[in-house]
Amino acid sequence: MAWTQATAMILFWVWRLPFAEPTGTSVTCTFSEDCVLPCTFKASSDEVIHWNRNNFIVHSYYHDADHLEKQDQAF
């Protein structure tokens, strides 16, 4: 039964992909300058957000708080 449900979900997402509309916002930034990136989502209590640049942690947010202890010093 679980395999059937998993297969149905995969087929649903594969069918949905070609019809999905991008909802992003265009952002224009200057090379090597600070840039603010928009991030919107429906709020709930279990959001986990990790922003990385290559292997560096830029920002982490989870358990309703910023977590800066592992953030790279450059950010």
Walk across the major sheet and give the strand order: 1-2-3
Total discrete domains: 1
Sheet/helix structural class: alpha+beta
Quaternary organization? single chain
Rounded to the nearest angstrom, the distance between the terminal CA atoms is: 47 Å
Shape: extended
Q: How much of the polypeptide forms β-strand, as a percent range?
A: 15-25%
Average pLDDT score: 76
Blueprint (SSEs and pairs):
Blueprint: H1 2-16, E1 48-53, E2 56-62, E3 65-66
InterPro entries: Ig-like_fold (IPR013783)
Keywords: Signal
Signal peptide: 1-20
Task: Please provide a written account of the structure.
InterPro entries: Ig-like_fold. Keywords: Signal. Residues 1-20 form the signal peptide. The protein has 75 residues and is α+β, with helices and mostly antiparallel strands. It has one domain. The protein is built from 1 helix and 3 strands. The protein has a 3-stranded antiparallel beta sheet, with no helix packed on it. Strand 1 (48-53) and strand 2 form a beta hairpin. The radius of gyration is 18 Å and the shape is extended.
Looking at this protein, list some descriptive labels.
alpha+beta, signal, 75 residues, three-stranded antiparallel beta sheet, Ig-like_fold, single chain
